[in-house]
Amino acid sequence: MTPDALPLLTAMHLADSSFPSGLFAFSWGLEAALAEGQADPRDLAGWIGAELHGRWHPFDRVALAGGWRLDGAGLADWDDLVDASIPAEMQRQQSLQAGAALAASARRIGVALDDGHAPVVHGRFLRLSGLTLPDALAVSAMGMARGLASAAVRLGRVGAVAVQRDLLALLPRIAALTDPPRPDDLPASFAPISDIALMRPLASRLFVN
Amino acid sequence: MTAARVGIGGPVGSGKTALIEAILPHLAAAGIDTAVITNDLVTDEDAERLRRGGQLPPERVLAVQAGACPHTVIREDPTLNIAAADRLERDFPGLDLILIESGGDNLASTFSPDLVDFWMFVIDVAGGDDIPRKKGPGILQADLLVVNKADLAPHVGVDLPLMLDQAQAVRGGRPVIATVCRRDQGVAGILDLLRREVLFR
Ligand SMILES: Nc1nc2c(ncn2[C@@H]2O[C@H](COP(=O)(O)OP(=O)(O)OP(=O)(O)O)[C@@H](O)[C@H]2O)c(=O)[nH]1
Ligand SMILES: [Mg+2]
């Protein structure tokens, strides 16, 4: 093995969906959107692309970068700011729940992490695990895309093979979106359709959200 | 001192929630401070049923969603359950026991040692007396095999003593307990085993 392969191997390990983080149980609105026809299972790349542009890029990317960059009191303040930037109560709780699950996992493998909002905890975890910020952002964006695709598969709405076409088609867009934010950028998402889907009550649901 | 974490798995409808309902009064009588986590497949039906049952204060029953994967949430990625158990321990200092009910699954479901200190697998007599012979990982690996709905044996043509013998045999003599959870039969034996094996009191 060449030492050069280490960053790639680390990123692959941390981005692997088998890494226990609880995220498999979240659909971030896709379950309701598929049930109610707002998301089209034949064009999952459309839904995932909109989430990446409207939610991940302006919100998760910025929140994650703060978690990656900051320490101590600055980190706690950043988590409070992210908390205040999620106005919908359910979504706020779900972000905390996802953060707590990742933190529980990290602590058990010896990475000291406090609970917090999912992207902030993720950013800190990836830095403490040795990833650069650009790699951390790529891991996070890919995780969101793959998480949504896998939720659609487990909901039985798309094939596990067919959905790979959507994901492959999205890779160039994901690469273009993973630019590190400026330190003074603030998280603010604009994803109204999935925001509403996240708040819709669903008679029977399989996912946390 | 942290709370013992005990998993309860088994096929759909075998009586996992009924077992919890039956054992809670025994635990209360023994002064064992308990909380429950359910992993319902859909919504939080079992959690609601336990809260309505009134044997535990409602805030001691947490529901964890399984994302369409009852297996994954107790084995491959148990972090949501670990986080829920950590939260219960934080909210209720002095907790002795956390029971974690898996969503109904198949004979292959097992609990991660990351999540539990001890786990039991509950099967239903009416599922057929060939179930132990099928040697699913759940049946072989569980610390305790519970053969529930013993009352139904005569109605479904099951030779219960033979079924229990075969269960003992495939498990190499590790514990097997027959129960009728609806009538509180055999449940005290489960409590005795838990006290000996995990609660140490
Ligand atoms: N006859 C009989 N019925 C039982 C017994 N225990 C449970 N039942 C019934 O079996 C059905 C299923 O019981 P539950 O406790 O809901 O089973 P479960 O394993 O929790 O089911 P899921 O969580 O849906 O997988 C209910 O109608 C119970 O009343 C028993 O010992 N004897
Ligand atoms: Mg149940």
From TrEMBL, chain A:
Keyword tags: Chaperone, Nickel insertion
A Pfam family annotated for this UniProt entry: UreF
Recorded GO MF terms: nickel cation binding
InterPro entries: UreF, UreF_sf
Name assigned to this protein: Urease accessory protein UreF
Organism: Paracoccus lichenicola
UniProtKB/TrEMBL annotation, chain B:
Binding positions for GTP per the UniProt entry: 10-17
Any Pfam family: cobW
Major localisation: cytoplasm
Subcellular locations according to the entry: Cytoplasm
Family matches, as InterPro entries: CobW/HypB/UreG_nucleotide-bd, P-loop_NTPase, UreG
Keywords, comma-separated and alphabetical: Chaperone, Cytoplasm, GTP-binding, Nickel insertion, Nucleotide-binding
CC terms in the record's Gene Ontology section: cytoplasm
Any one Gene Ontology BP term: urea catabolic process
SUPFAM superfamilies: P-loop containing nucleoside triphosphate hydrolases
Molecular function terms from GO: GTP binding; GTPase activity; nickel cation binding
Residue ranges annotated for the CobW/HypB/UreG nucleotide-binding domain, each copy included: 6-177
Family: Belongs to the SIMIBI class G3E GTPase family. UreG subfamily.
Role description: Facilitates the functional incorporation of the urease nickel metallocenter. This process requires GTP hydrolysis, probably effectuated by UreG.
Quaternary structure and interacting proteins, as annotated: Homodimer. UreD, UreF and UreG form a complex that acts as a GTP-hydrolysis-dependent molecular chaperone, activating the urease apoprotein by helping to assemble the nickel containing metallocenter of UreC. The UreE protein probably delivers the nickel.
PANTHER family in alphabetical order: UREASE ACCESSORY PROTEIN G
Protein name: Urease accessory protein UreG
Species name: Paracoccus lichenicola
